[in-house]
Design a protein that fits this description.
This protein has 360 residues and is of the alpha+beta class. A hairpin with a 4-residue loop joins strand 1 and strand 2. It has a five-stranded antiparallel beta sheet with strand order 2-1-5-4-3, sandwiched between helices. A five-stranded mixed beta sheet has the order 7-8-6-9-10, with helices on both faces. The chain contains 14 helices and ten strands. The longest helix has 21 residues. The protein folds into three domains: 105 residues, Dynein light chain 2a, cytoplasmic (Beta-Lactamase); 144 residues, Alpha-Beta Plaits; 92 residues, PucR C-terminal helix-turn-helix domain (Arc Repressor Mutant, subunit A, Orthogonal Bundle). The two termini are 43 Å apart. The radius of gyration is 29 Å and the shape is elongated. It is 50% helix and 16% strand. InterPro entries: CdaR-like_regulators, CdaR_GGDEF, Homeodomain-like_sf, PucR_C-HTH_dom, PucR_C-HTH_sf.
């Protein structure tokens, strides 16, 4: 970890020796230190657009009006920009010595962790948001009131790098957003957003499916404020993904705040679930119902117990539908044409799915 005071001291010494103002930006263009501790002059002199243009140019030095820039690079990666007042010729020797000194400072500090590693440790609760390593996630604090959302994207094994690339391009407008591989086929994405998490999740799912030609599930946490909340948000997104795979397999988007009865069942103790199954069905396991009857039951429940609409959607005669419902009644002991039995049937079947998951 690199001390801000040490970087500030290095910049102040340059000013004292060369009698020229100087400043230091990190590899993302964020101001780290300015001579005299005055952040106003480098921010006004060098806009974010100019910093990003220099970072993208690949050049070692760059001359502006009344100032010059020197790239700080090691391990083949740009990690900073040194800004000095005056021309390149006036600053070259001293600036290159300062750049070399800054490289040694970073090397002595063991080199800073990458943003992806920092995010991973924040999600896992191994870092707190107040640590200096997290500075790059705190840029543009004026936008912090939007709060952070954690998305968990699950796709095919080996797709992680491609998913990260798609997310980086899709959310290029948000400099603090970052994606990181969590496991095989699993990518976590943290992004500050306003109240648009469901829309963002749909966009993520559609874009990845369209560009990579793979199906993905996207789980979404509730909004948290501050980097310290990312660990909680990650746990919520992970729970939403698991609950979605158990109870809502036909859906691709799973919001932690909209898990319904599945979210309740997921947190029930196993003995309670087993007791409910016995009370409802009279056995220790849910009855075996063929796929046709099960599809009929779920469609009937989805249509709010409406016989006509269910028959229309299934392309069957009303009498055929009634026959199937009576067959379900015979096999389960529940007449799902009544509201109470319908709720008991739905809850019992969901608990049955949960019990299968727990046994795996």
């Amino acid at each position: 970890m690199i001390s801000e005071e040490l970087l500030q001291e290095c910049i102040d010494e340059y000013k004292a020796v060369c009698h020229r103002k100087a400043a230091l930006f990190d590899g993302n263009g964020e101001l780290l230190a300015a001579s005299g501790g005055d952040a106003s002059w480098p921010e006004s002199l060098l806009s974010m657009e100019k910093r990003e243009a220099f970072l993208a140019s690949g050049g070692e030095v760059w001359a502006g009006e009344g100032f010059c820039l020197f790239r700080i690079q090691w391990d083949g990666r740009t990690n900073g920009i040194f800004l000095a007042e005056g021309t390149i010729e006036e600053n070259r020797g001293a600036a290159l010595m300062t750049v070399g000194c800054l490289k040694r400072i970073y090397t002595a500090a063991g080199k800073r962790k990458g943003r992806k590693q920092i995010l991973k440790e924040l999600l896992e609760g191994k870092l707190t948001g107040e640590e200096e390593e997290c500075r790059s996630f705190n840029r543009f604090r004026k936008r912090g009131e939007d709060g952070w959302i954690v998305f968990l994207i699950e796709g095919n094994e080996g797709c992680e790098g491609d998913v990260e690339a798609v997310l980086s391009e899709l959310f290029a407008f948000e400099k603090r957003a970052e994606a990181v591989k969590i496991g095989e086929g699993l990518v976590a994405f943290a992004c500050p957003l306003p109240d648009q998490e469901e829309t963002a999740a749909l966009t993520i799912s559609d874009t990845i499916s369209g560009e990579l030609m793979i199906k993905v599930r996207v789980a979404v946490s509730r909004k948290v404020y501050g980097l310290d909340g990312l660990s909680k948000a990650f746990k919520e997104a992970f729970a939403a993904l698991e609950i979605g795979k158990i109870f809502y397999r036909d859906r691709q988007i799973h919001l932690f705040g909209s898990l319904g009865i599945g979210g309740l069942i997921y947190h029930l103790p196993v003995p309670v679930c087993e007791g409910f199954i016995r009370d409802i069905f009279g056995t220790d396991t849910i009855p075996e119902i063929d796929d046709e009857l099960l599809d009929t039951a779920y469609r009937f429940l989805a249509n709010n117990l409406n016989l006509s609409e269910t028959g229309r959607q299934l392309y069957i005669h009303r009498n055929t539908l009634v026959y199937r419902l009576e067959k379900i009644h015979k096999e389960t002991g529940l007449d799902i044409r009544s509201f109470d039995d319908a709720m008991a049937f739905k809850t019992g079947m969901m608990i049955g799915e949960y019990m299968k998951y727990k046994k795996q």
